[in-house]
Amino acid sequence: MDFSLTDEQNKLRQEVRDFLDQKLKSGAFQITSNGWIESFSQDFSREMSRKGWIGMTWPKEFGGQEGTYLDRAILMEEMLRYQAPIGYHFLSDRQVGPAIIHFGSKDQKETILPKIINAEVSFALGFSEPDAGSDLVSVRTSATEEGDHYIINGQKVWTTGAHRADYIWTLVRTDPNAAKKHKGLSEFIIDLKSPGVTVRPIINMAGVHSFNEVFFDNVKVPKENMVGEKNRGFYQIMAQMDYERAGLERLMQNYPLFEYLVEYVKKEKRNGEPMCKDPKVRNTLAQLEIEYQIGRLFCYQVAWTLTQGRLPNYEAALCKAYCTQFEKRLSDAATRILGLYGQLMPGSKWAPFQGDAASSYLWSVSYTLQGGTVEVLKNIIAMRGLGLPLG
Amino acid sequence: MDFSLTDEQNKLRQEVRDFLDQKLKSGAFQITSNGWIESFSQDFSREMSRKGWIGMTWPKEFGGQEGTYLDRAILMEEMLRYQAPIGYHFLSDRQVGPAIIHFGSKDQKETILPKIINAEVSFALGFSEPDAGSDLVSVRTSATEEGDHYIINGQKVWTTGAHRADYIWTLVRTDPNAAKKHKGLSEFIIDLKSPGVTVRPIINMAGVHSFNEVFFDNVKVPKENMVGEKNRGFYQIMAQMDYERAGLERLMQNYPLFEYLVEYVKKEKRNGEPMCKDPKVRNTLAQLEIEYQIGRLFCYQVAWTLTQGRLPNYEAALCKAYCTQFEKRLSDAATRILGLYGQLMPGSKWAPFQGDAASSYLWSVSYTLQGGTVEVLKNIIAMRGLGLPLG
Amino acid sequence: MDFGLNEEQEILKKTAHNFLTKECPTSFVKETIKDEKGYSPELWQKMAELGWMGLIFPEQYGGMEGSFLDLAILLEEMGNVCLPGPFFSTVILGGLPILKGGSDKQKEDFLPSIVEGKSIITLAITEPCAKYTPNGIEVRATKSDKGYILEGTKLFVPDAHIANHIIVVARTTEGTGADGITLFIVDSKTTGISCSPLLTIAGDKQFEVVFDKVSVSKDNILGAIDNGWSVIEAIWPKVIVAKCAEMVGGAQKSLEMTVNYAKERKQFGRPIGALQAVQHYCADMVSDVDACRYITYMAAWTISKELPAIKEASMAKAWCSDAFKRVTANGQQVHGAIGFTEEHDLHLYYKNAKSWELLFGDRDVHCEIVAEQMGL
Amino acid sequence: MDFGLNEEQEILKKTAHNFLTKECPTSFVKETIKDEKGYSPELWQKMAELGWMGLIFPEQYGGMEGSFLDLAILLEEMGNVCLPGPFFSTVILGGLPILKGGSDKQKEDFLPSIVEGKSIITLAITEPCAKYTPNGIEVRATKSDKGYILEGTKLFVPDAHIANHIIVVARTTEGTGADGITLFIVDSKTTGISCSPLLTIAGDKQFEVVFDKVSVSKDNILGAIDNGWSVIEAIWPKVIVAKCAEMVGGAQKSLEMTVNYAKERKQFGRPIGALQAVQHYCADMVSDVDACRYITYMAAWTISKELPAIKEASMAKAWCSDAFKRVTANGQQVHGAIGFTEEHDLHLYYKNAKSWELLFGDRDVHCEIVAEQMGL
């Protein structure tokens, strides 16, 4: 057992921090909860690319660094601590690239992976549909073979960043007659500029245009844009999910709020005494600190497992379920500790730390829903991790 | 709306209190959590009978007082506050009598009801079986017609007080071939002294012999002991459950612990200051007080509904689910406030209030299980109260 | 004991429900909270015509002399539709102190005008230290030739931008206790008053109000000099329970929306309401909502009977603060992504729940009061 | 980073698991906690032969010089089977202070004897005020001709009835702080010492120990006069984390029992483990157990590396206190009535969880320490 990092890993962390400190000073971004995915900057992503921080764990043959998942965890931990604007490449780096490495054709690997690594292309993920949320098997968007193309028809929803990305990575139905519904799905890469694609914004309750509906009306997609095997898309996605669920981004979406809050209660006085002397405040923040440290251990445990060359089984689901619930408690506790100030939104006069608490309380609704609800994750833990029977 | 009691109701409460104060002074019982059902005193029940406090809500024609359910709630509230020894008649009064009034034959009404009211007979309830806990429909104990008798074979379990009661009120299978399993069940009254009945004690984790296994080996039961309609037993029981679930006994099983605790922290000092000056203690006890008062309102709401001549629908299930969870929090909070003293059991030197906290923490395991688990109750609330579909 | 409403209350409830459902749909709510004014003068007038602003004021001022319980019923319906606007400020925060502490002249000056919907009033009590206790009052009223000079900053003052008058809680004598605090009814257009809007989570209108050498006359004093806190203290249980009544209505509606959604929304081939996890969320929600209702109405009834209600009010606010929030959070979890969108209505309740939890003190604040009332 | 055990640790874990599963079945546990002695001298001797009592003591005293991490692994297995007896008292509460603060002679007197299983030692720290802080120490040691006179009452002293020696934390100089506290190693048969048993929820053996003019010599002092608390302070993270390690083992076993039961027990025609509510309970349990394990081993590793571990230890104890309790309560709820019986084994864990929550401070106590460590 060893809970320390190697000198090299510490060096990497310092390097990332130095980079971010410098960018922060130059005004490239601000530290705001939920900012990491909302801020979309190809320039910033290009700079990260030059550092070798995109595709960090990928094989060298695809332009990667062959770094470990622990290295990537360290990188991500710092990115999230600073809430650096990594929205442009984040999904491609975390999910699209690894999926192509696992399932893509030689051609896809050669054409797409370098573009991702060089921050020349941005991806959105199109899995959910109006009637297929937790129940992905019910996906209805169809792909029909026609010559050297597929014709895509249907609708995706909750597509983060589709209004800014170049491509959308989708799960669609290629065999409407499959006896088992999950055996008729395939994965496609679709150019969002294709004729017949319409992107309609959805404004979330925090007032932000973060996700979209994406409509496909007879969209022609070349056959070579199918990823992996026809009708095996569901299985491919299940494997990809473990990567999606593993990351520190599930723990640190609103991490700045925690640091702001701890600093705030140390300085801010109420009737002459620093707020941190209030036993309730102390108890709450200590509990959050413990929960945060545990979440961090969960995340690093998953990264360590991946680094060992093993796939996290139930642990990725457990990590995400635990961490997203922590983030919710954090945002609620922050608003309560701030009292009346806890209701002040970004941009408001008198708002402590730019209204991060109130804003995060709104965003937090999505934490336990996105990428598998807490309930679905718990079922996965029970069935896959503990061997309990199908419910 | 009116949250006060009438003068008559207040008079009743005072009368009950005076009676209990006098009995307490005479050493008839001690105030101990969970004592009310564990203490089994025919003498005490006879005295209550003379006061008209058994069968209080029953029609006068059966020897009852035709009091309201609110009157009974007041009576029970005081009995539970004092944890008076009402184990002898409690189940008969709450459940067996009303079931006979609703479903019993003329003969049953004439012979059994007076005996209950006069505290001449004590009943146990035999519903659960090893394979039929939450799933009562699976009851397997069988009753086979044979001349003017039924022959009972099988086993009941978790039968509170069967080692002390005269009769057991059972749910048994009269039609093993019924297409729908719940349409083959009937209710019987069985004399526990019948040949073929064996009662085996079960010691609970608090070290108390509180419940039993009851075995039936070719037990002959006269046909007239069947209650209500043949094969309608399951429906009859569902109706009875609403009464079972409604009572203050679900809120106040460990009520003395709460009063002891509040008094204790006011008096007891730690390093010179009364424990009640600790912000954490204040917060915890205030929260418990609020939760208790809400539980009390839930109970009185159910009693009021019954007094109005309406059956509580989901409210009885809700009340029990809420109240039993409160009792668990209470016992946990009590042990924590007491710190190291919280681990001391009844009979121990240095145990605050006779070890009520530790003992109650053990008993509390059963609170959310008996008479319908919290999970089953929540399903009832969802389906019966909110009309959600069968899960 | 009687957990039911009487006939008039049933009518009041039904009338209010029907009127508000029609006049205050969520589309209206969403528009209005984005609007700078934050209320509709037309709707305001209609409400006055229904007698709502006068519901609890004496007949001599044009009111209906209803009970506080009646007002709670009305507020529950307002919370049920997230009614935006200055009703709470004007009637509860403005009207009640005047009724309690005002001179005959002040009552005649203000109450009929409130009742008729002509006057909007608010209360400026909290300051940058964000407390509702006497030691939180630092705005000063210094004696001058003509009366008093107000100086200082009030924060989180609701509806200050549309209020004709602001009741200002100020310190006339040095100290930190309740003694030495005086209330002033101040014309909001008095020289030296400036308002800056705050952006709040629920979109309700709150303001920083700065008093820069604001000159007021002795006639503006509400109640006795140095003894203004007693007025606040007297109305405070009403303020708290009025907010709880709104929370009950909001929680009820959140529950209904969620149950309906659980019945309609299908996943895995059947309504999600058939999933045990969803059933348990919904069961927890109804338990929370019923508890909110009973504990709030017990407090409202206690106030109506003019019995001491400090403990009852704090029990209600402590509970509702947590429970309404929990109900909306559970509701969101059942709704999934759709509830996270601005198009959907649930977020209105989710936001109100957080806002109202923080207003007038959250669970911890009120648990401390309950502890005190328990003799701890 | 490495979350795995090394080869020797795997062997230690497996050996301990196999040995304890065989030698300490729940039937043995139930008998033993009902027995007055509360342990089996035969098993005690076998454990000594396995080298467990000497696991972390230096070789010169017959120990194996293992790391604290090794000890944590062993303790986890002990918690896994609810091992009754004085291992924790003797090795952790007795041995560690002697190793830390003892003179060479004291180490030679006591450590080999501990390692060989010949000596049972305990620590008398808490008193009727039930605190683990210096201001909780009121038992006095007054200077006399021959040494010191101990006077006062210690409470909750584990295994005092079988201990050969008791380390007594006493005040040699007036005050309430850490200064002025001295440790004494006292022969338990010294005149004036009387023990009365307490009945505890978990059936472990704790005692009131009254010191009535107990005469001890200067040689009995452990560490420096007036500076005994520094020894307690130095070993305290180890004490706390050692208890957490036991909790990890208990939580793990509770989870396993519950999952197995959920797979076997049928209701409504299928295993209850197919019910979503049961699945979610089990998922919460495994989350709690994994969290207990990681946070505890992080603390144990920190101690092994001789790094400051106050915060790590308190984080572990704060979390495990709640989580082990939650795991056993959820386990009980899944088991239903069967788990409430004495015949079943689950209550052993349910009781240990409550007992160990309260021992050495519960969540609130340790959150306060974490807060301090955070600079709050």
Summarize the structure.
Chain A has twelve helices and ten strands.
Key descriptive features of the protein:
heterotetramer, A: 391 residues, Butyryl-Coa Dehydrogenase, subunit A, domain 1, Butyryl-CoA Dehydrogenase, subunit A, domain 3, four-stranded antiparallel β-sheet, 10 strands, C: 376 residues, alpha+beta, Butyryl-CoA Dehydrogenase, subunit A, domain 2, four-stranded mixed β-sheet, 11 helices, 15% strand, globular
Instruction: Give me the number of helical elements of chain C.
Output: 11
The largest beta-sheet of chain C arranges its strands as 1-4-5-8
Q: List low-pLDDT spans of chain C.
A: none
CATH architecture of the largest domain in chain C: Up-down Bundle
Helix fraction of chain A, binned, reads 40-55%
Kindly state the number of beta strands of chain C: 10
User: Could you name the ranges of chain A where pLDDT drops below 50 across 5 or more consecutive residues?
Assistant: none
- What is the total number of structural domains of chain C? 3
Multimer state: heterotetramer
**Domain count of chain A:** 3
Predict the CATH topology of the largest domain in chain A.
Answer: Butyryl-CoA Dehydrogenase, subunit A, domain 3
Which band does the percent of strand residues of chain C land in?
15-25%
Q: What is the element string of chain A, with H for helices and E for strands? A: HHHHHHEEEEEEEEHHEEHHHH
